[in-house]
Amino acid sequence: MLTLTTLLLGLTALPVLANDQLAYQLTEELTVEVGPRIAGSLADAKAVAWATNKFQLLGYDKVWTEQFNTPFWQRGNARLEIISPYPQSLVLTALGGSVGTDAEGITASIVMFNSLEDLMQAKREEVLGKIVFINKAMTKDKVGSQYGKVVGARSKGAVEAARLGAKAIIIRSVGTSNNRFAHTGKMTYEDNIAKIPAVAISVPDAIQLTKIIAKAPEAKLRLNMENHTQDAISHNVIAEITGSERPDEIVLIGAHLDSWDQGTGALDDGAGVGLVMATGALIKKLGQPKRTIRVVLYGNEEGGLVGARAYAAKHASELAKHVVASESDFGAGRIWQFDSKFGPQSLGFAKEIQQLLSGHGIALGPNKAFGGPDVSVLAALGVPVVSLEQDGTDYFDFHHTPNDTFDKIDPAALAQNQQAWILMTTALANSTIDLRK
Ligand SMILES: [Zn+2]
């Protein structure tokens, strides 16, 4: 029989079940209801509205947005073909920020290098008038340590190739998947260096291209691409749980709201958004923390930390009151290590936090935390940071590809993340320790 008591029990039992999966539910909502959300786009604005509304529904004490100017880069059609001697097309993606070609496209022979460093040592006559191909493979590990060694080809390759007179650049995808899709990501230009089109090809296509070049060093390619960039605005979305005793002291936890356009930005960084939104909301249910917990959903991380720099500039006078900052932006794998970047007197407190987390299989790092891409801007300005380091073994299979979608998230792993974020953030917010010391 349905009584008031069973109804009430039902109602009180439900949120417990739901709470365990709150980060997962929020990530699902963002990726399903908004989907891909490149900075400056209509979908980006929709994500800002979604997050603002959601923070209010979750019971945050203060919610606001901070506007900044940003480029809005849009991918157009792109096609890359071998035109001789073995005509066929290659699977590519434009790199974020790349210019397009004119209507005829670029037709040229190709010159291959094994790394950005090799390109930088090349002679101008080897490169002039050609399409450069950088074929640097990336290997997998838990911490993604290869990314930093490979990503230079993506970010700086166009500048270095153009310096030597290249017409365009192709890179092997910065990623670890053997699937036939390419990984996008931000590339940059420099003033006074020609802006040449930059694309990535899938790993199987990179292997295919090396075989074509081995048989036919004079192979000719044609690239057609139609990207364009315009000026736009975006927003950081910020929400707080006000501290009960030290409201002016800020514990900042962040993630980035924007994503690349190819997938739905579930691992990068929908999961991080869900985690930090859930963390503040669930801590508040347990009672107001002593320090203020400020959740920052940064805009345009992918286009080069645009929102993070805007936040640091706007809050420059308040940075001394940022006691610590952290970010979730490495997918949705289990957390295996907690690390800090504290002053020497606070290392005992780092150990205490790790002990709270040890039941979730989380070890202590060597006080060398990075914090995350957006909060690294704050770390560079002296704000202490902490990291909950995730297992990223598979992260670069999906990173910046059409395959970064919600189905890749393991709810049990995300629940472990959520518990760790709540424990860590509560400890930081209820402490009185000056972590700079
Ligand atoms: Zn990210």
Bound molecules: zinc ion
Helix content: 25-40%
Assembly of the depicted chains: single chain
CATH superfamily of the largest domain: Zn peptidases
Q: What top-tier CATH class of the largest domain fits best?
A: Alpha Beta
**What is the second-level CATH architecture of the largest domain?**
3-Layer(aba) Sandwich
* Terminal Cα span: 61 Å
Order of helices and strands: HHHEEEEEHHEHHEEHEEEHEHEEHEHEHH
What would the principal axes of the Cα set say about the shape?
A: elongated
Main β sheet profile: 8 strands, mixed
Protein architecture, described:
The protein is α/β, with parallel strands linked by helices. It has 2 domains: 254 residues, 3-Layer(aba) Sandwich (Aminopeptidase), CATH 3.40.630.10; 151 residues, Glucose Oxidase, domain 1. It is built from 14 helices and 16 strands. Strands 3-2-9-5-6-7-8-4 form an 8-stranded mixed β-sheet, with helices on both faces. A 5-stranded mixed β-sheet has the order 1-10-12-11-13, with helices on both faces. A hairpin with a 3-residue loop joins strand 2 and strand 3. The longest helix has 21 residues. The N terminus is likely disordered. It binds zinc ion. Zinc ion binds next to helix 9.
